[in-house]
Amino acid sequence: MTLIRHMSTSEDRRFQRTRQALQQALLTLINEQPFDQITVQQVIDRADVARKTFYAHYADLHELLWDCLEQFFAETVAALGRADSDTLLLDGKPLSYSIFRHVADHVAFYRLILSAHGSAAVVARLIEFMAQQSYELHAPFRAVAPRITVPPHLIAHHLAGAVVGSIVWWLKQPDPPSPETMAYTFSQLAAPGVMNALGFDE
Q1: Long-range contacts of 117-124 (CB under 8 A, 24+ apart)
Q2: 2-58 has which fold?
Q3: What was the pLDDT predicted at 184?
Q4: Per-residue pLDDT tens over the stretch 36-47
């Protein structure tokens, strides 16, 4: 972070262009072969950068893959509204809708990283990231909860793991339900337990 702060505008643009080139190179390769078969050499060849340039930006391919995921989710989170504590909806739809919509927009990418050839380390970080977002989104519910009988962070991690599991199932379906249908189905499965843990009668 210190390096970025002291960069000139032109250097910062070059820095960002290089990262984008590396990200795009990896995303292209992921569409061609399993992640666990991709090498740093393949990525730098596609991005047309030197090996030392790659390591100036990322420690390894897992860090590069995670950076791609963070960019995807940053866009999704930026588009979110505020959850309604009365209806349990976010912009008129279940909280999970934005996640399923996002996955639908990048289905080939998620089908690969959540497959047996994906990265377990990246999936673990994905669950942690989603758990943190879940914790923040459920703040309005906790504020009005009659009683909380389960640690809120455990609730968030439970929901994050359940969402990822649901996505894995969804991506395997030959005729998958729509993102909106998946979001409402997920709420039907998850909401009763969460509401009970927060002390709501219904």
Answers
A1: 117/34, 117/35, 117/36, 117/37, 118/34, 118/35, 118/36, 119/35, 119/36, 119/62, 119/65, 121/62, 122/62, 122/65, 122/66, 122/69, 123/164
A2: Arc Repressor Mutant, subunit A (1.10.10)
A3: 93
A4: 889 999 999 999
Q: Are strands 93-94 and 89-90 parallel, antiparallel or unpaired?
A: antiparallel
Element (H, E) at 89: strand 89-90
Q: Which two tokens stand for residue 102?
A: 């996002």
Is this structure's pTM higher than 0.85?
A: no
- 22-25's contacts with Cβ under 8 Å and 24+ in sequence apart are 22/47, 22/49, 22/54, 22/57, 22/58, 22/64, 23/64, 23/67, 23/68, 23/71
CA distances from 137 to 60, 81, 100, 133, 190 (A): 32, 9, 16, 6, 15
Q: Which amino acid is at 200?
A: F
Q: Rounded mean pLDDT of 169-179? A: 95
pLDDT tens figures, 66-75: 888 887 777 6
Segment (H or E) for 23:
helix 9-30
Does residue 27 register a pLDDT over 70? yes
